[in-house]
Write a structure and sequence with these properties.
It is a single chain. The chain is of the alpha+beta class and about 325 residues long. About 20% of the residues lie in helices and about 25% in strands. The strands form four sheets. The protein has a nine-stranded antiparallel sheet with strand order 3-15-1-2-10-8-9-5-4. A two-stranded antiparallel sheet has the order 6-7. Strand 6 (about 160-165) and strand 7 (about 170-175) form a beta hairpin. Helix 1 packs across helix 2. Residues about 15-85 have low confidence and may be disordered.
Length: about 325
């Protein structure tokens, strides 16, 4: 950048001298070849909208302004502009469950409401963190229903994360939380190909370096705006305001009372919510802990039953940004 400044100053000096000698007669003639990126200032304009100094008491000042504009215009084209931010404010989620639900869910992202949360979510999507995961909690209570997904430990393949950062160790799952048949053993059917140790890690997974407590390497700044209405998607937080990782909650009912002002809404389902409604909250087993919705104020923390682990895998094939 220092070389650019030196180049700018050198060109300014040269052009100031040349313009002074020419009196703007030739430098701003209609036939002159001029740089296209020259700002206007308060003086009369000549060819191509470039400033030309006029005679009169302010002619010296106007001449200097015109030369300065010409110098800046000559240099700026050589300075690379910042790359435009990557586009895409919508994501597409493909779901396929072991009990026959399949289709596309579209989510409109809200960078105007939660820009840092959207950026984090898009980073996780683009890294493939969500591909092959599953909704590991389908919870319904008092005629309200939510889905919890985004935990990479729900992949049906091995996944490791360095969540034991204070030990410098990695915690790995073997995958196969449901196994090839996609089912957990329950009162209606058996299954012997699933891995309980993997399921014990569910709720603990996130992006590399993340964990739920204060030892996490990832601390996402809270952006607790938006309304937790039906269809809203928010990053799931834990006890600390900045504890959100990659796990997310999709509301299938109005959860404004329980969640507004306490977690970050970053999008809303605009297509396919009827597919999510079909996910069965009755055919479930017990998760390791109850499902709660943490708060930082003095209001009562809502806690729902731990009976929300689907017996049929509610798979997320992929999530892509469009």
């Amino acid at each position: 950048f220092g070389a650019v400044i030196r180049n700018l100053l050198a060109k300014m000096r040269s052009l100031l001298v040349a313009t002074a000698l020419l009196g703007c007669a030739e430098a701003f003639a209609p036939s002159a070849v001029l740089p296209t990126r020259v700002p206007r200032v308060a003086a009369s304009t000549g060819a191509a909208g470039v400033v030309c100094a006029e005679a009169g008491p302010d002619s010296r000042r106007n001449l200097l302004k015109g030369a300065l504009g010409l110098a800046v215009g000559a240099v700026l084209p050589s300075v690379p502009l910042p790359a435009a931010a990557a586009g895409g404010e919508k994501c597409v989620m493909e779901i396929k469950t072991a009990d026959g639900i399949a289709g596309t869910v579209e989510i409109e992202l809200m960078p105007d409401v939660a820009p840092k949360t959207v950026a984090a979510f898009k980073e996780y999507v683009q890294s493939g963190l969500y591909d092959g995961t599953a909704f590991h909690r389908v919870n319904e209570f008092a005629k309200k229903k939510v889905l919890v997904g985004g935990d990479p430990y729900t992949k049906e393949e091995a996944f490791c994360n360095d969540i034991d950062t204070w030990k410098g160790q990695k915690t790995c799952s073997a995958g196969a939380g449901y196994g090839p048949d996609g089912w957990l053993a329950n009162g209606k059917r058996g299954s012997g190909d699933d891995d309980k140790a993997t399921r014990n890690l569910w709720d603990k997974g996130g992006p590399p370096g993340w964990r739920r407590d204060g030892l996490s390497k990832i601390k996402l700044e809270p952006e607790f705006g938006g309304k937790h209405e039906r269809g809203a998607i928010s990053l799931r937080r834990f006890n600390r305001p900045n504890s959100a990782g990659s796990q997310f909650i999709i509301n299938l009912a109005d959860m404004t009372k329980e969640m507004d002002g306490q977690s970050a809404v970053f999008g809303k389902v605009t297509k396919g919510i009827e597919l999510l409604d079909k996910m069965d909250s009755k055919m479930v087993l017990k998760s390791n802990t109850a499902l709660d919705f943490p708060r930082d104020d003095d209001k009562f923390v809502t806690t729902w039953s731990a009976w929300d682990r689907p017996v049929a895998r509610q798979g997320i094939t992929s999530i892509k940004i469009e």
